[in-house]
Amino acid sequence: MARSLLFPEFKIERDKERCIACQVCVRQCANDVHEGSDTEDTVVSQEEKCVGCQRCVNLCPTNALTVQTRKDGFRPNGNWEDRHLRGIYKQAETGGILLTGMGCDRLYPVYWDHLLLNASQVTNPSIDPLREPIELTTYLGKKEEKLDIHWEGDSPVVRTRLAPQLGLEVPVIFSAMSYGSISYNAFRSLAEAAREAGTFCNSGEGGLHPDFYPFGENIIVQVASGRFGVHRDYLRVAAAVEIKIGQGAKPGIGGHLPGEKVSKEISRTRKIPLESDAISPAPHHDIYSIEDLERLVFAIKEAINYEKPVAVKIAAVHNVAAIASGVVRAGADIVTIDGIRGGTGAAPQVIRDNVGIPIELALAQVDERLRLEGIRHHSSLLIAGGIRSSADVIKAIALGADAVYVGTAALVGLGCHLCQKCYTGKCNWGIATQDPVLTKRLNPNIGRRRLVNLLRAWAFEIKEMLGGMGVNAIESLRGNREHLRAVGLSREECSVLGVKAAGEGW
Amino acid sequence: MIILKCRGRHYKDVNHEVEMRWERGERDILLDEVNGHRYIGRALSGEGLIDVRGVPGDDLGMFADGVTVHIRGNAQDGVGNTMNAGTIIVEGDVRDIAGHSMRGGKILVQGNAGYRLGIHMKSFQDDYPVIIVGGNTGDFLGEYMAGGMIIVLNLQENGGASPVGNFTASGMHGGKIFIRGKVSQEQAGRGIGLSEPNEEESLEISSYLEEYQQKLDIHLPPLDLRSFTKLFPLTTRPYGCLYAY
């Protein structure tokens, strides 16, 4: 094989004065970038293997290492960017599809960054969250048309039979990441954090390891086209069941966990043979229509005796509002919509970066469509795909979401540095890997604490912002787009978002 | 034996009552006047019999986990969808996607099957699903199959026409399919091997056919197992070389 035409993406600088040749970097790199010597006190690095995950930089005891993106790369060209050339070189070499991990990293507009929040001044008082209670509790599930309340003496009795609900103390859920795509310790961190913080994590489509059944009250289990590990107990142990139709990072296509990652424990969890490819077909082959979707929704409701909500997750695509309407009519208690910036453990790069639409636009359109059709209360809206901060959360809720999913943000909380190499199974941070040497690096107790901290911090910030608006319950903000104003957007974009331009009053 | 009349009742009501009785230990239930009721026998765990008189609706035996469901006529789409264990006996035909993602148990069909029979069946250790069809099947038989066994007996023979359709075993990466009658390499998906069953497999088929006859209470004509065509995947990693790095 001829030498690759690629040259290193990263430049590794080792400060000779500082390096003590302790070989921490050698041991930490699963990509074998650094090589020590038994006889000499030197460490050499092969930059072409580096993925820029910063693990060695972070752990170097003398701060001797820096890893930077190489600036002096291809000849600058406004049309042909580095990524095009790199892609072509790799494909000409292998004839294969380019794979990637995490969410779309292209420079499409991020509408959260064009939306600004309101605050109270003079005419209505703001609220100090440290002094007055501000309610973040959120219930996901179908809401009744009306309540039949009957008075027995002085106490009201609700006669209407309420639909099952998921109660969240903070409107943020850890999104679907399967045990398989992430490590046992990463999954354990998420499950324990969800329980401690009063929220939920999603099993993803890879079944549920027996060790996590005790966490069922805080787990949403997924039923995807591969039906891995889906059986009666799996459905019944969970707090809710989510049918996965699509994923924001790869709308319209299925997925598969490569055989290399199907270890003994993964094979036990997914109930498939050791080291065979775990294939999720693109469609569910029992769902070719909204009516078929209804059949699966009710099959699951039957299997769980209508005791828990059933969610349906779709990717944000061009006709998402009409599709969401169909999903609601198919009986989904929660509609999950995943935007183009949603993450993945592995997806073809061309799909991740080119298919789907930003979640902000999809959310605005779905919420509006469901309200116009008078069915918004039939389902809660859970959105996913690029929520990076508490500001994004609160803007999403003002735009019409009931709650949000975070995947990437949670992994970043656990140490992820967004190197986008999840699909290689060589995650140096112990997150997206099944290699026992690497998974050991993530301590689930520390992971849990970091995630609980993150949610606590976001909850404080959300309360501060709510208080500033003079709103004392997150429910009162939901879908209230008067609390949002747009900057730097076209009239069409404002109209799709249903938001006025900054400067326009009520 | 408990007899439940289903006429005029919603499936939700029928299935709920069946489960209540099942959990109480009433494990021999006859459902009479069934007419399009969905999800019969759904998610029932442990041994026992649901005897179905009439025409059941879609997803019969969905998530079944040990129950035996016996249908005295035809069944519709999704028989044994995502089932885990148990036996479904159909004296007539089944339609599309029977045995979808089935992980264990048996589906024994006296008549024909529709499209996508046994799609994405899988096996793990002792969980080994088996489907036997007496007649023929539609396209995409055993699509994405990852484990277990499908046997197509082609009893009517249909003047020598192939008993299976196009794209048979398309994307198959585990398990085995045995077909009596004509099947060509062109009908099978890419990466699928064709051969005849070996000694051990013939014994395995015989023992399943024994059970098939006994459960359906029929007698099969003598079948030359050596004339069956075995379809098997050439790789467990069909997508192993699809990607760059």
Describe it:
The complex is a heterodimer of chains A (506) and B (245). Chain A has 16 helices and 23 strands. In chain A, strand 13, helix 5 and strand 14 form a beta-alpha-beta unit. In chain A, helix 4 packs across helix 14, helix 8 packs across helix 10 and helix 11 packs across helix 14. The mean pLDDT of chain A is 95. Chain B has an 11-stranded mixed sheet, sandwiched between helices. With 245 residues, chain B is α/β, with parallel strands linked by helices. The model of chain B has no long low-confidence stretch (mean pLDDT 95). The interface between A and B is large, with 39 and 48 residues.
CATH top-level class of the largest domain in chain A: Alpha Beta
What is the molecular shape of chain A?
Answer: globular
The greatest inter-chain interface is formed by:
A-B, 39 and 48 residues
The CATH topology label of chain B is Pectate Lyase C-like
Strand tally of chain B: 11
CATH topology of the largest domain in chain A: TIM Barrel
Query: How much strand of chain A?
Result: 15-25%
Q: Largest sheet of chain A, described in full?
A: 8 strands, parallel
What's the layout of helices and strands?
The complex is a heterodimer of chains A (506) and B (245).
Chain A: E1 10-14, H1 24-28, E2 34-36, E3 43-45, H2 55-59, E4 65-69, H3 82-94, E5 99-100, E6 115-117, E7 138-140, E8 149-152, E9 155-158, E10 166-168, E11 172-174, H4 184-197, E12 201-202, E13 219-223, H5 232-237, E14 240-244, E15 255-257, H6 264-270, E16 278-280, H7 290-303, E17 310-315, H8 320-329, E18 334-338, E19 347-348, H9 349-354, H10 359-372, E20 380-384, H11 390-399, E21 403-406, H12 408-413, H13 436-439, H14 444-469, H15 474-477, E22 484-486, H16 491-497, E23 500-501
Parallel strand pairs in A: 11-21, 12-13, 13-14, 14-17, 17-18, 18-20, 20-21, 22-23
Antiparallel strand pairs in A: 1-4, 2-3, 5-19, 6-22, 7-10, 8-9, 15-16
Helix pairs in contact in A: 4-14, 8-10, 11-14
Chain B: E1 2-5, H1 11-23, E2 28-35, E3 49-55, E4 65-71, E5 85-90, E6 106-109, E7 130-133, E8 146-152, E9 174-179, E10 192-195, H2 199-216, E11 229-233
Parallel strand pairs in B: 1-2, 2-3, 3-4, 4-5, 5-6, 6-7, 7-8, 8-9
Antiparallel strand pairs in B: 9-11, 10-11
